[in-house]
Structure formats: C-alpha cells, structure tokens
Amino acid sequence: MMTPPCPISVVMPAYNAGQWIGRAIESVLAQTPPPLELIVVDDGSSDTTPNVCVRYSHRIRYIRQQNRGAAAARNTGIRAARGELVAFLNADDEWCDGFLEAIARLRDRFPEAGAYATGFRCILPGGRCFDAVLSDPSGPRLIRDYFAHSLAGPFMYTSSIAVPRSVFSQVGYFAEGEPMGEDLDMWGRIALAFPVAYWAQPLALYHQEASGRVCDHHSRDPRYPPFVRSYQKAVREGRVPPEMKAAVARYCSYLLLDYAKALLYVGDSKCARLALEQAASLARLPALELAGVWLAAHGVPIAWMRTARRGVRVLRAVLGVRGSRPGRWARTLMRSIDLLRHGAREPVGAGVLAPPAQDAGDSGSRNLSAPEPAEAAASVGRESP
Hints:
Layout: E1 6-14, H1 21-29, E2 35-42, H2 49-54, E3 61-64, H3 70-80, E4 85-88, E5 94-95, H4 99-109, E6 115-123, E7 129-132, E8 140-143, H5 146-150, E9 161-164, H6 165-171, H7 182-193, E10 196-207, H8 226-236, H9 245-265, H10 269-282, H11 287-297, H12 302-321, H13 328-342, E11 382-383
Parallel strand pairs: 1-2, 1-4, 2-3, 6-10
Antiparallel strand pairs: 4-9, 5-10, 6-7, 6-9, 7-11, 8-10
C-alpha cells in the first residue's frame, strides 16, 4: 500500500539552477510521507533549468514566469498551492530524509504555530560544514519569542521552514522588489503574531558553496532591511507584544549592523553611517564591533584596521607567554576587523549576526538590552563530523 501524501505543498523557486535543481527535486520526491505536490516556479531561467524540470514533468508542477526575483516566485507558488502547509526549498539546497515527517509531526503537536521549522546544516565552500540548531532540548518544542532565540545565532532557514497557507492571509506575502532580506522579513512578521514550532535537528542542507545565490550580491539600495520597516510599522500600530519589545528591537539593530557592513562592501559609507545611527538608537550593541564599523563608515582606511589586527596578534602572543587568555575586547576587535576586511558575507536568510560568546569569568562585560532565556543558546558554528 502506498503511503498517503501529507497535506504539504512544496514551493521551489528557481533561477538558473540547472546545475543543482535535480538534486533538490530528488530530495523532495524521496520524502516519506511524500508531499501533496511539488511546485517549481522558474523565475525566467536562461540555462538548463527547464530541461531538467522536463525530466520530472509527471511528478512536479512546473510554472514559468518572467524574472521578478525569489520573493515573487515564492508568492506565485503560494497562490498556486493546494496543501494546508507550504514548505519552501531553494533550488540549490536539499532536504534530508525525514524532513517532511518532522514538519508533519510538529503540525500535529502544535496546531497553533504560525511556522514549522527544523535546524539546518550549512555546507561551506571546500566541504566544511556546521549545524545551526538550538541545543536544548533536541526534540520538538514551541518557541514563543523567535527574536530572543535568534539573538544567539541562526537556527532556522528558508529551506527548513513550512508555513500554514492560512497564515499568509493574515501577515501578507513575501515582500517583492527587495534586494535581500525578504525571507527574514516574512519570518519576523509571522513571529510577531504566532509562536514557532521547532525540531532541533539539522534536516535541511544549505549549500552555501553554490554560486549565484542571492546572498552573493550586495546592493546600494538606500532603504533599511524590510523587516526593520515592518517592525517600525508594527510599533506604530501597536502590534509588538510587550514581552518581545526588547528582543525584537535588538534583533533589528543587528539587522541594521549587517546592512551597514553590506553598504560598506559596495562603498556607500554615507548610507552605512545612517544605518549605524539607527542601529544604535534601537538597542545597545557590542561597543567595539559597533565602533569598528563606525570608524570604517567614517573613512578610517582598512589598512589601519589590518595594522590594528596585527597589533592584537602581538598582544595575544604576549598574553599567551604570561599564561593568560586574550580578553573579550581583543576577540571582538579582531572579529570586527575580519568583517570589515572581507565585507558583509553573512548568508541572507541564515539569521542575524550573533554577538560574541561570553567567557566564564566575564559576566560583567555583557552588553544586552534584555536578558536572554537560558534556552536561547544555539549551537551555531558547531562543526559536523
């Protein structure tokens, strides 16, 4: 007897993904139970993507549209979906066995949730990888403050998330025309109105080594990240729950800090300074990291930052001779210099920039606007065997 499909529509936006889309489709079709449907939305590809999809024409729904971006492609898929849940998978990512089963079990256990997600494994160029999951507990859970948990690091990603189709009628669709961050905007809008059900296992594979991803490109768009604008609107309309105000403000400040780095990467120091000012007005940030980006935005040459980095290395060597570990300020400064030298290359949709981890015996140096729950610690950056 065939396993009945679960009531999940899978939406896969694709643009010039002919090299990887077959792998993504196979990972969906291998799920048990299978999805109700797989909708591939070809966003005007000019490569072999249509040819690859033809091979699966009897098992997928193929929709082709003019190139309008990933958000528009996802919205097309949502409107065409027939399932109770809509799961998203980028054409260059893939699912592990058991992903849809975990989503279905979350749905049965937490029907009140506005999104269902698992952890994910990030595969870097060169084959290295790390798991982005909340550490404890390892099983299913209901997260009522998505923003507080996100401050500890990314723990869910577009290709590891499913949303009840009815939720879109309440929070709206993906923001189209944004250069980046439209996925974080969607998850943030949902989290302001609903809890998030989560399974702490890396059941989706985020292939960051794939070229041509949206996050490989930076824009001079002067607008703030879309969720910052959504947050400002929610504040004006009184839709931010009181218990979330501190965490969501700090979340937005980190989005703006990342945005400032992206602007510096394309040489727009004026807009970067405005973004930094807005970030500092929303919440307190790690002082040295903020200062480092601020100095670069105000014209301090990157060569000076390199000199400072070398100086910190000498300081670490000296401290090492004395049998002492470098302080948190030194690590933070070195991290800031790295980010300034290499540009803002954090993956879009993978979460916000996490603050530096706190060392034992450094309890007086935390710079938080609100206490984070103990369960918010995420094992982001834990290398996979």
